[in-house]
Amino acid sequence: MARTERSAAPPPAMPETAAGAHPAPPPLVRHRLLGLPVDAIDMDAAVAHIAAAIRERRPLRAVVTNANKSWLATRDARLRAALEAADLVVPEWATSWAAGVVGLKGVAHVGGIRLMQRLLAEAPARGWSVYLLGARPEVVETLAARLRREQPALRLVGWHHGYLDEEAEAHVRRELADLRPDLLFAGMGSPRQELWLQALPRDAGPLVTLGVGGSFDVLSGHKRDTPTWMRGRGLEWLFRLSQDPRNLWRRYLVTNPWFVARVLAERVRRA
Fold first, then answer.
1. Which regions of the chain are under pLDDT 70?
2. Are 196 and 188 in contact, with CB atoms under 8 Å apart?
3. What predicted TM-score, i.e. pTM, was given to this entire model?
């Protein structure tokens, strides 16, 4: 089976300067919400923890948690284990809302795509190297071309689509071991991306791994981004549903009511 792949030769590393270095991250506080972990962090804290891991050359697995992932984790013990084992559990809006309802403090809306955008913006000045894994061949190729055009200083060391047969997976693993990127963004959808990253040994090459779902489609321009006025107000799901109702109706119209009911029950239980 044919596959699309390409790797860019890594530009020279650019070490962080003292003026541009991130401050030490705040202590990580982990809560339990609907039986699953979530960290009390905001965007700056999430970036600070990731920056510290890269600076210290310490592998870090970051996962994003939301209503759909909570629903999936009740049905997939492997996904639950991946969430439990993560070093950083990043909340999206639904998780942040739920934390507020049940009285958990400091769980801010961060989200996978916004965190990826922030890390990509930080990467050139920090000298961080980046690898993209996921989406359809034409999507990841477009995203790679766009990043190289718009951020020429970004150390984009490689990319590969997410349709991995046995041969392609072996190729990706070899490439990650050779390139050893600081940041690996996996846009393969849940639970596949979490399970794939969980199975990747911590010494397999990438320092920080983050599953970002459908972010490649948006950042490449293949899908529209959520309008600014809808972000952070709990309306992102409605926009995504309007863009792809055939594939997303179950995720939002089944899992969202389930999630709200579970959160309200949790509030009563904690009262």
1. 1-22, 224-252
2. yes
3. 0.86
Residue 214: which of 18, 68, 44, 3 has the closest Cα?
68
Asked whether residue 252 is assigned to any structural domain, the reply reads no
14-36 per-position pLDDT tens digit? 455 443 455 789 999 999 999 99
Look-up of token digits 């590969």: 160
| Alpha carbons 94 and 68: distance in angstroms, whole number | 9
Count of structural domains, the chain: 1
**pLDDT single digits (tens) 34-67:** 999 999 999 999 999 999 999 999 999 999 999 9
**93 part of a folded domain:** yes
Closest to 63 measured CA to CA, from 211, 265, 240, 171: 211
| Residue-number span of the structural domain to which 133 is assigned | 27-219
Residue 1 burial (10 A CB sphere; 0-12, 13-18, 19+): exposed
